[in-house]
Amino acid sequence: MVSGRPVKHSLTLRGHRTSVSLEKPFWDAFREIADIRNLPINELAAQIDETRGDIGLASAIRLFVLDHYRAIRAE
Question: How far apart are CA 20 and CA 27, in angstroms?
């Protein structure tokens, strides 16, 4: 059974440390996407951070992961 409890990880975004809490499946998917794009996870998080608008970073990452897999499914 997959735990729904968020797991907190530290990220460095453009030289600034922050922590993000995501459920393990989202962390796994986020790392997979970073690997596919050949980017460090901190760089991908920084890109998302720059475009997230007024939503929290954790929510922005979850939506990014969802959009990624929806786009693949639509192909």
Answer: 10
Query: pTM of the predicted model, to two decimals?
Result: 0.91
Residue boundaries of the structural domains of the chain: 6-74
* Angle formed at CA 12 by CA 6 and CA 15, multiple of 5 degrees: 155
Kindly report the number of other CB atoms within 10 A of residue 12's CB atom.
14
Task: Tell me phi and psi for residue 25, to 5 degrees.
Answer: -60, -35
- pLDDT tens for 30-70 read 999 999 999 999 999 999 999 999 999 999 999 999 999 99
CA triplet 23, 64, 39: central angle to 5 degrees? 90
Phi-psi region of 55 (alpha: psi -120 to 50; beta: other; left: phi over 0): beta
